[in-house]
Amino acid sequence: MPMKGRFPIRRTLEFLQKGETVFKKSVQIMTVNYNTHGDLSEGARKFVFFNIPQIQYKNPWVQIMMFKNMTPSPFLRFYLDDGEQVLVDVEGKDHKEITNHVKMILGKSERGSSSSERVCRVSDCGSQPPALVMRGPETFSFAPRESRSCSFSIRRFCASRPA
């Protein structure tokens, strides 16, 4: 593709592959509501301009819709496969903050598992006294306190989303 048009770098394969936001398989539709004028929607406009092409490339199963000048404040809405909706307020945020927040609440973990984290068994990690660790949003289990062979990651969830 020739390097013509408005900001052709956004259409290069290298730029599209640099996107880091990979959604969980439960995300079906993403809507972006923003205004074309005003300071409060500046981050949302840059998010649409720079990050939406990368998100479309990395998540081909997600339908993405943009709504311009239909709302007083910008927001993102995600529709999940179980009928649940996740609303993300992006008013006054930078496009990098928006990307990090969306990755945190709806992105896959680094290991590729989207529903639960790995928890080692007590017998695998020695005989240290167990500590309570969070395995997923609703599951707790016991694991050793000082384990070098097991790794734990704790996910934070959006405070506005009901438990």
TrEMBL record:
Subcellular localization(s) per the UniProt record: Mitochondrion
Family in the record: Belongs to the mitochondrion-specific ribosomal protein mS25 family.
InterPro entries: Ribosomal_mL43/mS25/NADH_DH, Ribosomal_mS25/mL61, Thioredoxin-like_sf
Organism from which the protein derives: Cyprinus carpio (Common carp)
Key word Electron transport present: no
Positions of transmembrane segments: none
GO molecular function list: structural constituent of ribosome
Keywords: Mitochondrion, Ribonucleoprotein, Ribosomal protein
Organism placement in taxonomy: Eukaryota, Metazoa, Chordata, Craniata, Vertebrata
Pfam families from the UniProt entry: L51_S25_CI-B8
Any one GO CC term of the record: mitochondrial inner membrane
Origin superkingdom: Eukaryota
Broad class of where this protein is predominantly found: mitochondrion
The keyword Transcription is assigned to this record: no
Protein name from the UniProt record: Small ribosomal subunit protein mS25
Domain Ribosomal protein/NADH dehydrogenase: start-end pairs: 36-109
